[in-house]
Amino acid sequence: MDFKEITEQSKQAVTEILEKANLAPGSIFVVGCSSSEILGDQIGTATNLDSANAVFDGIVPVLEEKGIFMAAQCCEHLNRALVVERETMEKYGFEQVNAIPQPNHAGGAFATVCYQRFKNPVLVESINGKADAGIDIGGTMIGMHLHSVVVPMRISLRKIGAAPIICARHRPKYVGGQRAIYDENLM
């Protein structure tokens, strides 16, 4: 596996999502990532820290440059808790929980890498549906972390490594019915 290519694909994917999603600084971007699926294996069967680090290297600099917070989803063994920077937890009032993600036991490779490489990582049980956009790499099911009206997004990439990706953003709810006029910038 070419990990430099994984980094470039991850960077391209998040860049395209951000261009289309119009996120403001301070928004939350959720990432679910199966390092096994990136390698072409079934989720949870071939945990790989190298592929997780490659995804981190592609995504995090782009988000940091835009002032967007990342939430890294853990696997189901930690109930899809999320690794965030302490700054994110404090800004949004999320509640910290006590667990440290592990690559082969509970959490997964990507959450482990984020916990190791964030400046001041914490684990939160939920971000209360506050994510503004995100990417699901390998079928990790990130939808529960997004605002209530989710819009799927198509970008030029369909996969990172061998893992299929699904991209999404939220939009505000439409109210007012047929007589309402909507702001095109929010659609």
TrEMBL record:
It comes from the Bacteria. Coiled coil: none annotated. InterPro entries: Antibiotic_NAT-like, DUF436. NCBIfam families: TIGR01440 family protein. Belongs to the UPF0340 family. HAMAP family: UPF0340. This is UPF0340 protein SAMN02910451_02747.
